[in-house]
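sry for the spam today, last one i promise. C-alpha coordinates for design, 240 residues
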Protein backbone atom coordinates (compact mmCIF):
# COMPACT_ATOMS: atom_id res chain seq x y z
CA UNK A 1 0.00 0.00 0.00
CA UNK A 2 1.19 3.54 -0.75
CA UNK A 3 1.40 6.03 2.14
CA UNK A 4 -1.34 8.21 0.61
CA UNK A 5 -3.72 5.25 0.71
CA UNK A 6 -2.99 4.83 4.42
CA UNK A 7 -4.59 8.26 4.97
CA UNK A 8 -7.90 6.49 4.31
CA UNK A 9 -7.22 3.20 6.06
CA UNK A 10 -4.97 3.93 9.06
CA UNK A 11 -6.15 3.74 12.68
CA UNK A 12 -4.37 4.14 15.98
CA UNK A 13 -3.12 0.68 16.96
CA UNK A 14 -3.24 -0.09 20.69
CA UNK A 15 -2.66 -3.83 20.57
CA UNK A 16 0.76 -5.21 19.60
CA UNK A 17 2.62 -8.50 19.38
CA UNK A 18 5.38 -8.35 22.02
CA UNK A 19 8.22 -9.26 19.63
CA UNK A 20 10.78 -6.61 18.65
CA UNK A 21 11.13 -5.55 15.02
CA UNK A 22 14.25 -6.79 13.23
CA UNK A 23 17.25 -4.51 12.60
CA UNK A 24 16.38 -4.10 8.91
CA UNK A 25 12.91 -2.78 9.75
CA UNK A 26 14.32 -0.44 12.42
CA UNK A 27 16.77 0.91 9.83
CA UNK A 28 13.91 1.49 7.41
CA UNK A 29 12.05 3.46 10.08
CA UNK A 30 15.14 5.55 10.74
CA UNK A 31 15.29 6.25 6.99
CA UNK A 32 11.61 7.30 6.93
CA UNK A 33 12.30 9.82 9.71
CA UNK A 34 15.44 11.09 7.98
CA UNK A 35 13.71 11.41 4.58
CA UNK A 36 10.45 12.95 5.84
CA UNK A 37 9.88 16.49 4.63
CA UNK A 38 10.31 19.18 7.28
CA UNK A 39 7.75 21.99 7.40
CA UNK A 40 10.02 24.43 9.24
CA UNK A 41 13.62 24.50 10.42
CA UNK A 42 12.57 24.22 14.08
CA UNK A 43 14.76 21.60 15.74
CA UNK A 44 13.60 18.28 17.16
CA UNK A 45 15.34 15.16 18.40
CA UNK A 46 14.09 11.67 19.24
CA UNK A 47 15.00 8.48 21.06
CA UNK A 48 13.89 4.90 20.51
CA UNK A 49 12.67 3.39 23.79
CA UNK A 50 11.49 -0.02 24.90
CA UNK A 51 8.30 -0.62 26.92
CA UNK A 52 10.25 -0.71 30.19
CA UNK A 53 11.51 2.84 29.56
CA UNK A 54 8.01 4.37 29.28
CA UNK A 55 5.89 5.79 32.08
CA UNK A 56 2.18 5.56 31.32
CA UNK A 57 -1.14 4.76 32.96
CA UNK A 58 -2.27 2.93 29.85
CA UNK A 59 -2.76 -0.81 30.30
CA UNK A 60 -1.24 -1.89 27.00
CA UNK A 61 2.38 -1.80 25.86
CA UNK A 62 4.11 -1.81 22.48
CA UNK A 63 7.56 -3.29 21.80
CA UNK A 64 8.88 0.11 20.62
CA UNK A 65 8.34 3.79 21.29
CA UNK A 66 9.67 6.98 19.76
CA UNK A 67 10.04 9.81 22.28
CA UNK A 68 10.21 13.18 20.53
CA UNK A 69 11.79 16.32 21.96
CA UNK A 70 11.33 19.90 20.71
CA UNK A 71 10.74 23.44 21.91
CA UNK A 72 7.15 24.03 23.04
CA UNK A 73 6.14 26.92 20.73
CA UNK A 74 3.45 26.41 18.11
CA UNK A 75 5.60 25.95 15.00
CA UNK A 76 7.97 23.53 16.76
CA UNK A 77 4.97 21.35 17.70
CA UNK A 78 3.50 21.69 14.19
CA UNK A 79 6.81 20.61 12.62
CA UNK A 80 6.99 17.53 14.88
CA UNK A 81 3.42 16.59 13.89
CA UNK A 82 4.21 17.09 10.20
CA UNK A 83 7.35 14.95 10.24
CA UNK A 84 6.15 12.06 12.40
CA UNK A 85 2.75 11.78 10.68
CA UNK A 86 4.66 10.99 7.48
CA UNK A 87 6.39 8.27 9.52
CA UNK A 88 3.02 7.03 10.89
CA UNK A 89 1.71 6.72 7.30
CA UNK A 90 4.87 4.89 6.18
CA UNK A 91 4.54 2.48 9.11
CA UNK A 92 0.87 1.84 8.51
CA UNK A 93 1.28 1.39 4.75
CA UNK A 94 4.04 -1.17 5.47
CA UNK A 95 1.92 -3.33 7.77
CA UNK A 96 3.13 -1.90 11.08
CA UNK A 97 0.89 -0.48 13.80
CA UNK A 98 1.48 2.89 15.40
CA UNK A 99 -0.20 5.30 17.81
CA UNK A 100 0.63 8.89 18.76
CA UNK A 101 0.84 9.11 22.54
CA UNK A 102 0.76 12.21 24.67
CA UNK A 103 0.15 10.12 27.77
CA UNK A 104 3.34 8.03 27.58
CA UNK A 105 6.44 9.80 28.80
CA UNK A 106 10.00 8.52 28.93
CA UNK A 107 10.50 7.27 32.51
CA UNK A 108 13.90 8.99 32.55
CA UNK A 109 13.91 11.73 29.88
CA UNK A 110 17.35 11.99 28.27
CA UNK A 111 19.13 15.30 28.01
CA UNK A 112 18.42 17.10 24.75
CA UNK A 113 19.79 20.54 25.57
CA UNK A 114 17.02 23.11 25.44
CA UNK A 115 14.55 20.68 23.84
CA UNK A 116 11.94 19.05 26.06
CA UNK A 117 10.03 15.82 25.66
CA UNK A 118 6.73 16.63 23.91
CA UNK A 119 5.09 13.51 22.53
CA UNK A 120 5.68 9.80 21.90
CA UNK A 121 4.62 7.25 19.30
CA UNK A 122 4.24 3.52 19.89
CA UNK A 123 4.93 1.10 17.07
CA UNK A 124 5.38 -2.58 16.31
CA UNK A 125 3.60 -5.52 14.70
CA UNK A 126 -0.14 -5.11 15.25
CA UNK A 127 -2.03 -7.84 17.07
CA UNK A 128 -5.16 -7.58 14.92
CA UNK A 129 -6.19 -4.27 13.39
CA UNK A 130 -8.91 -1.85 14.51
CA UNK A 131 -11.88 -1.70 12.16
CA UNK A 132 -11.56 1.09 9.61
CA UNK A 133 -14.50 3.47 9.72
CA UNK A 134 -13.25 5.77 6.96
CA UNK A 135 -13.46 8.83 9.09
CA UNK A 136 -17.06 8.62 10.27
CA UNK A 137 -15.90 9.92 13.63
CA UNK A 138 -14.47 13.08 12.07
CA UNK A 139 -16.12 16.49 11.64
CA UNK A 140 -17.68 17.05 8.21
CA UNK A 141 -15.74 19.25 5.75
CA UNK A 142 -18.26 22.05 6.26
CA UNK A 143 -17.21 22.26 9.93
CA UNK A 144 -13.48 22.41 9.37
CA UNK A 145 -13.50 24.95 6.56
CA UNK A 146 -15.46 27.95 5.31
CA UNK A 147 -15.61 26.19 1.91
CA UNK A 148 -16.28 22.43 1.77
CA UNK A 149 -13.49 21.84 -0.74
CA UNK A 150 -12.87 18.10 -1.36
CA UNK A 151 -9.11 18.77 -1.58
CA UNK A 152 -9.27 19.07 2.22
CA UNK A 153 -10.62 15.52 2.70
CA UNK A 154 -7.17 14.10 3.67
CA UNK A 155 -6.88 16.82 6.35
CA UNK A 156 -10.35 16.00 7.64
CA UNK A 157 -9.32 12.37 8.19
CA UNK A 158 -6.20 13.24 10.18
CA UNK A 159 -5.78 11.81 13.69
CA UNK A 160 -5.59 14.25 16.59
CA UNK A 161 -5.19 14.16 20.36
CA UNK A 162 -8.49 12.93 21.87
CA UNK A 163 -9.81 13.30 18.31
CA UNK A 164 -10.21 17.01 19.03
CA UNK A 165 -9.69 18.17 15.40
CA UNK A 166 -8.82 21.72 16.38
CA UNK A 167 -8.11 22.91 12.86
CA UNK A 168 -9.98 25.37 10.65
CA UNK A 169 -9.32 26.33 7.04
CA UNK A 170 -10.30 29.57 5.30
CA UNK A 171 -10.09 29.80 1.54
CA UNK A 172 -7.45 32.31 0.45
CA UNK A 173 -7.18 32.64 -3.34
CA UNK A 174 -6.02 29.27 -4.65
CA UNK A 175 -4.93 28.17 -1.16
CA UNK A 176 -6.20 27.90 2.40
CA UNK A 177 -5.23 29.71 5.59
CA UNK A 178 -5.00 27.24 8.46
CA UNK A 179 -6.06 28.39 11.93
CA UNK A 180 -5.78 26.75 15.34
CA UNK A 181 -9.28 26.56 16.82
CA UNK A 182 -8.72 25.27 20.37
CA UNK A 183 -11.34 23.32 22.28
CA UNK A 184 -11.59 23.83 26.01
CA UNK A 185 -10.20 20.57 27.37
CA UNK A 186 -8.75 20.28 30.85
CA UNK A 187 -5.86 18.05 29.86
CA UNK A 188 -2.38 19.20 30.92
CA UNK A 189 -0.12 19.28 27.84
CA UNK A 190 -2.99 19.38 25.32
CA UNK A 191 -1.88 22.66 23.72
CA UNK A 192 1.41 21.14 22.52
CA UNK A 193 -0.41 18.03 21.25
CA UNK A 194 -2.88 20.27 19.40
CA UNK A 195 0.13 21.90 17.72
CA UNK A 196 1.19 18.38 16.69
CA UNK A 197 -2.36 17.84 15.35
CA UNK A 198 -2.07 20.89 13.08
CA UNK A 199 1.14 19.50 11.61
CA UNK A 200 -0.46 16.06 11.27
CA UNK A 201 -3.32 17.44 9.17
CA UNK A 202 -0.81 19.37 7.02
CA UNK A 203 1.15 16.12 6.56
CA UNK A 204 -1.99 14.48 5.15
CA UNK A 205 -2.29 17.34 2.63
CA UNK A 206 1.40 16.98 1.74
CA UNK A 207 1.33 13.19 1.33
CA UNK A 208 -1.82 13.37 -0.82
CA UNK A 209 -0.42 16.25 -2.96
CA UNK A 210 3.37 15.72 -2.82
CA UNK A 211 4.09 17.52 -6.10
CA UNK A 212 1.99 20.61 -5.52
CA UNK A 213 2.03 21.14 -1.72
CA UNK A 214 3.39 24.52 -0.64
CA UNK A 215 3.29 26.06 2.83
CA UNK A 216 4.21 29.54 3.97
CA UNK A 217 3.57 31.82 6.90
CA UNK A 218 2.99 35.44 6.08
CA UNK A 219 3.79 38.02 8.70
CA UNK A 220 0.22 38.60 9.82
CA UNK A 221 -0.24 39.37 13.48
CA UNK A 222 -2.90 36.78 14.33
CA UNK A 223 -2.19 34.48 17.25
CA UNK A 224 -4.07 31.48 15.89
CA UNK A 225 -2.83 31.70 12.29
CA UNK A 226 -0.66 28.68 11.48
CA UNK A 227 0.11 29.31 7.81
CA UNK A 228 -1.19 29.20 4.27
CA UNK A 229 -1.20 25.94 2.37
CA UNK A 230 -1.49 25.56 -1.39
CA UNK A 231 -2.40 22.26 -3.04
CA UNK A 232 -3.56 21.51 -6.53
CA UNK A 233 -5.39 18.41 -7.63
CA UNK A 234 -2.80 16.05 -8.95
CA UNK A 235 -3.59 13.32 -11.45
CA UNK A 236 -3.09 10.39 -9.11
CA UNK A 237 -5.14 11.54 -6.12
CA UNK A 238 -8.18 10.23 -4.33
CA UNK A 239 -10.53 12.34 -6.46
CA UNK A 240 -10.21 10.23 -9.59
C1 LIG B 1 -0.76 14.33 19.41
C2 LIG B 1 -1.59 13.10 19.73
C3 LIG B 1 -1.57 12.56 21.00
C4 LIG B 1 -2.31 11.39 21.29
N1 LIG B 1 -2.24 10.84 22.56
C5 LIG B 1 -2.88 9.67 22.80
C6 LIG B 1 -2.76 9.05 24.08
O1 LIG B 1 -2.10 9.56 25.00
N2 LIG B 1 -3.39 7.85 24.28
C7 LIG B 1 -4.11 7.24 23.28
O2 LIG B 1 -4.64 6.14 23.49
N3 LIG B 1 -4.27 7.83 22.06
C8 LIG B 1 -3.66 9.01 21.80
N4 LIG B 1 -3.77 9.60 20.55
C9 LIG B 1 -4.55 8.93 19.49
C10 LIG B 1 -5.89 9.61 19.24
O3 LIG B 1 -6.78 9.33 20.30
C11 LIG B 1 -6.46 9.15 17.90
O4 LIG B 1 -5.58 9.51 16.88
C12 LIG B 1 -7.82 9.73 17.59
O5 LIG B 1 -8.78 9.34 18.53
C13 LIG B 1 -8.31 9.33 16.19
O6 LIG B 1 -8.36 7.92 16.04
P1 LIG B 1 -7.53 7.17 14.89
O7 LIG B 1 -6.08 7.54 15.04
O8 LIG B 1 -7.77 5.71 15.12
O9 LIG B 1 -8.04 7.63 13.55
C14 LIG B 1 -3.09 10.77 20.28
C15 LIG B 1 -3.10 11.35 19.00
C16 LIG B 1 -2.36 12.48 18.72
C17 LIG B 1 -2.39 13.03 17.33
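last one done:
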Amino acid sequence: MEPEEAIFTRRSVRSYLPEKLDDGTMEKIEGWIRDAKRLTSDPFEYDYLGPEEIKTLMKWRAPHYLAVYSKDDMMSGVNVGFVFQQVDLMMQSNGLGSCWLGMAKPAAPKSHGRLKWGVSMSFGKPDGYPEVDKGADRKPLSEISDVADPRLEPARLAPSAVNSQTWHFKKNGDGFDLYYKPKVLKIPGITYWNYNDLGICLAHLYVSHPDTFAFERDGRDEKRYVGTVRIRRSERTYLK
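Residues 46 and 68 are 4 Å apart (CA to CA). ok im logging off now
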